[in-house]
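Quick illustration for those who missed Monday's session on complexes.
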Amino acid sequence: MQILKVRQGDTSAPQRHRRLTHSRQLGWALNGPCSERSAALFALYKPMLDARQTHRDLPDAPPWVVAQLGQSLDGFVATETGDSYYVTGPHSLVHLHRLRALCDAVLVGAGTVAIDNPQLTTRRVPGQNAVRVVLDPDARLDGRSRLFNDRQSPTLWLCDARHAATARERLAALMPTDAAANHASTEVVAVEGLLEKEGLPCQYLPPRAVAALAERGLRLLFVEGGGVTVSRFFRSNALNRLHLVVAPVLIGQGRRGLQATAHDVMADCPRPPARMLILGDDLLWDLDLRA
Ligand SMILES: NC(=O)c1ccc[n+]([C@@H]2O[C@H](COP(=O)([O-])OP(=O)(O)OC[C@H]3O[C@@H](n4cnc5c(N)ncnc54)[C@H](OP(=O)(O)O)[C@@H]3O)[C@@H](O)[C@H]2O)c1
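Prediction with NAP bound:
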C-alpha cells in the first residue's frame, strides 16, 4: 500500500504522501481535505498502522492481532466441498491483500492449506509478503503444500511440541539432495502446550501461538481463516479486531464462518463497537474487540 511508504520526518516523500503524519498522542493521522471514502479507508487501517508504530517504538509492546473472514449472508466461508473461490468480490480481495502487506505474519489453519493450497503472498497491492504461518497443532499436513515449497516468503509450520518431530521428518523426506537450500524458507516451530487436550479436534490455545510468534519478532498478526481458526481465536479473546466481510451470496450448507460462544439470553450476547464499510458489493464489519 502506497501510504505505508510514508515515514515520520520523511521530507522526500512525494506530495501525495505528505498528508499522513504521526504524533505520540494521536498516532497516525490523515491531514487536510480528503474524500469521505479516503477517510473511511484510513480509519480502517489506522489501528494497524498505529500498532506497527508502537511495536517499532516499544520493543515490549504486546502483539496485536486482526482477523478477517469473508462469509455469505447465511454465514458460510466455503461450500461443503470446501470451494471458496470466491465468496467475496474483488474489492474485498484487495482489502485482504492490504492486510497481508500491513502485517508481520499471515496465519491460516491447516484445513485452509489442505483445501486451498494457498500462496498467501501480497499480489493485489504493492507491499511486502508477510511471513506465512500454518497452524497445524497435531501435524496433519503432509508438507507438500505450495507455501512450504515455493520459497516466496518465509513460512512457519506451527505444531504442538509433541508433534513437531513428525512435521520435521515430513519436510526432510521431501527434500531433494540439495535440500537445505530448497527448504531454507520453511521452518517447523514447536510450541510447548499449544494443544490443550490431546486427541480432541481444535483444542489448541491461540494465545500460545501468538506468544510463540511474538518471541520471533512477529507481533502484528493477520489471521486469514478459515472459519474454525478465526472462531477459535475469537472465542479465546486473542483478537484485537475482526473484519467480517459479508457478501450478498447464499451458500445453503458449507464450511461455517464465525462461530461465537452461545448465550441463552440476548442481554448476554456481546455487541462489540462496530463500523461498516462498503467494499464493492460486500459489507465489511470492523469490530473492535478491545473497546
Ligand atoms: N471465505 C474466507 O474468508 C475463507 C478464508 C480462508 C479459508 N476459507 C475456506 O475455509 C475452508 C477451511 O476452513 P476451516 O474452517 O474448515 O478450517 P481452518 O480454520 O482453515 O483449519 C482448521 C480445521 O482444519 C482441520 N484440519 C486439520 N488438518 C487438516 C487436514 N490435513 N486436512 C483437512 N482439514 C484439516 C481441523 O480439523 P480438527 O478439527 O480435526 O483439528 C480444523 O477443523 C476452506 O474451504 C477454505 O477454502 C475461506
